[in-house]
Amino acid sequence: MSARAAVLAGLGGYLPPRTVTNEELSRRFDTSDEWIRTRTGVERRHVADPGVSTGDLAVEAGHRALKSAGGGQGAVDMLIVATATPDQPVPATAPDVAARLGLGTAAAFDVQAGCSGFLYGIATASAALTAGHATRVLLIGAEVFSTVLNPGDRTTAVIFGDGAGAVVLRAGTADEPGALLAFDLGADGTGKDLITIPGGGARQRSTGRPPQPDAGYIHMRGQETFAEAVRRMGQSSQAVLDRVGWSADEVDHVVGHQANLRILRTLAVHLGVDQERVVSHIQEAGNTSSASIPLALADAGSRGRFRTGDRLLLTAFGAGLTWGSAALTWPGLTPE
Ligand code: UT7
């Protein structure tokens, strides 16, 4: 009998309707459409309106994933929200999202692993399903990064955007299309200063001093982050390929964290995967952190890019430092 595995059963994405183009940013910052396109691949990003939070986007994406999975909210017994921009420090964003989605008393909690949150979430969901702690899990990656962007920092303003993506996972077996077959997760806290939002936590409050004016904004050391992203996603992807027993040639699609198109292109070269197998959604949405991989999956899936049984490699890198990768086959579902 085939081994137990989590199986992808539903997929949905939601981008807030308002877009900000590179042209608009070049009126606010010393930058240009040409610089942003060539250095990052981003053409526009979606931005939540004032008053719209991460939980609001998560509910929209959650609805869509449940619809893609054929409805049946009552059967979801665990909700995980992966986010680095939660609605508030306490409580977690997930219980409120669960209540708004009508999930009853399903277990609900947040995962915070920076831009690797979706990969950490999918590994956690998969473990719960294969251990028998859950039979159906809704995992949502959702972010409103626009709320933590320093209005004076062009580097972060050009790449980050808002959005949410969600998957429904069910208990199944490894021989089914849609099965998650292998994972790799890792972290290195010695690199914690590369990407930070320093304020708002116990570290800052424990000093007894008021926070610096920019403490609530994201700070990123771009060049070093770029190099670490390529290195860590490369190593992690290779670890997953070794575990699942696929050669680079056998990977049909690489769905990497959409941080920068140049990172995805360089990663493909390091892995020895053809560039046309790299899935990119960054043109439309920028870097949506925990939401970027499910959004890229939903976009490519709805365009008919994947065929049932195709081999997908997911890989992400983010603040922490954290990274993670997963191998799965495509189930042939219709994303919402
Ligand atoms: O999601 C979590 C993980 N995050 C990432 O993986 C992001 C990784 N980093 C990056 O994507 C890139 O480092 C950035 C897009 C953030 C920056 O691109 P870069 O090619 O690394 O730029 P740089 O920092 O090396 O700067 C190159 C030049 C500098 O000018 P000089 O010193 O050469 O004259 C910058 O001042 O580009 C300048 N620059 C800009 N110019 C126009 C930096 N940002 C901008 C900008 N517009 N927005």
TrEMBL record:
Metabolic or biological pathway, per its Swiss-Prot or TrEMBL entry? Lipid metabolism; fatty acid biosynthesis
Keyword Lipid metabolism among UniProt keywords: yes
Pfam families on file = ACP_syn_III, ACP_syn_III_C
- Would you name any one GO CC term? cytoplasm
- Name the EC number(s): 2.3.1.180
Record remark on domains: The last Arg residue of the ACP-binding site is essential for the weak association between ACP/AcpP and FabH.
Q: Which family does it belong to?
A: Belongs to the thiolase-like superfamily. FabH family.
Stated role: Catalyzes the condensation reaction of fatty acid synthesis by the addition to an acyl acceptor of two carbons from malonyl-ACP. Catalyzes the first condensation reaction which initiates fatty acid synthesis and may therefore play a role in governing the total rate of fatty acid production. Possesses both acetoacetyl-ACP synthase and acetyl transacylase activities. Its substrate specificity determines the biosynthesis of branched-chain and/or straight-chain of fatty acids.
- The protein's name is Beta-ketoacyl-[acyl-carrier-protein] synthase III
Species name for this entry? Actinacidiphila rubida
Top-down, what is the taxonomic lineage of the species of origin?
Answer: Bacteria, Bacillati, Actinomycetota, Actinomycetes, Kitasatosporales
